[in-house]
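Could you help me review a protein record that somebody else here produced? What it holds is a sequence and that sequence's fold in C-alpha cell form. I need someone to confirm that the C-alpha cell line plausibly describes how this chain folds. Take the sequence as given and treat only the C-alpha cells as open to question. This is what I was given:
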Amino acid sequence: MSDCHIPGIEPVYSGKVRDIYDLGDALLLVATDRISAYDVVLPQAIPDKGAILTQLTKFWFEQLPTSIEHHMLSTDAADLPGPFQAAARSWGPRFMKVKKLSMVPIECVVRGYLVGSGWKEYQDRGTVCGIGLPTGLEEAARLDHPIFTPATKAEVGDHDENISSEAAGGLVGDDLVRDLEQRSIQVFEFGREWARERGLILADTKFEFGRVGGTGTPILADEVLTADSSRYWPADLYRPGGSPPSFDKQYVRDFLSSSGWSGAGSPPDLPPAVIDGTSQRYQELYHRITGESWSGKV
C-alpha cells in the first residue's frame, strides 16, 4: 500500500513513508509501504513494510520503561472519529493515533558502532559529528560508549545533515539537547540489551521527540527502534573491518549502488527479488525482536 486515501479528507503532511491526518486533539499516523534511499522515495513499495514498522514501534512503546513518555494513544480503529474508521480497518495494522506535539527540529542519533556516515567522517577527520575517537579504529568497530550525534531533519528529497551537539544547541538550546541526549541514550541502551538477548546487535538508531505546545518534557515520537530508523546486525555474523549484513534498507541500497544510482535523477525499478528479499528481512527482524511470527498479523 503506497497511498492511504480517505475520500474527501487530505493528509496534513505526506512524508517519505508516513501520511499524517489531523484529528483535532490528536494526529493519525499511517505508515505506507513506501521505501526511500538517499532521501528519495523509490517507485516500488515493500509489501507489509508500513504495518511492520507500526507494530514494531507499538511493541517498543509497550516495553520501554515508564519513565520514557511516548506519543502513542491507540491502534484501535474504534478510537478514531467516524470518517476514519472504515479506512483504518481497510489499512490493516499500519496506523497509530498519537498525541499532537510540536516536534523538536533535530534527529537524535545514537551510535554504538563506527559505520555508515560516521565511518566516512572518521576516515576523513578522525571524528564523528565533531566527537574525537581513538585512532586506528576499523569499520564497524564497537565504540567504548554510545555517542549522541544529532542531525538536521530534511524535507522530502533533501538530505539529512549530521551536526555537532553544539550546533544542535544553537538550534534548540543547550539544555534541551542535553536532555534529549540523556533520553536517547537511555532508550538505545534498553533496545541494545533487548536485542543482544535475542542474538542481534543494535548498531545505531535515530529518535524524534516532541513537546506539547512546544514546551515541557520531551516526548518520544514517530517510529522507534525499527528497521527504518535503526541498523541491526545478526550477532553471529558480526566482524569488524567491514559492514556486516543488516536487517535495514541496506539490501536495497546495495542493489541501487550496483546499478550505479546514488540519489541523482530518477531511481531504477526494484526487481521482484529485491522487493521480496527486503520484505523478508523486515519480517525476520519483527520475529526476532518480538518472538512472534509476522504471518497472521495482516
Observations:
- Helices lie at 49-63, 82-91, 117-125, 165-172, 174-196, 250-258, 272-290.
- The mean pLDDT is 91.
- The domain at 102-255 is CATH 3.30.470.20 (D-amino Acid Aminotransferase; Chain A, domain 1).
- DSSP finds seven helices and 17 strands in the chain.
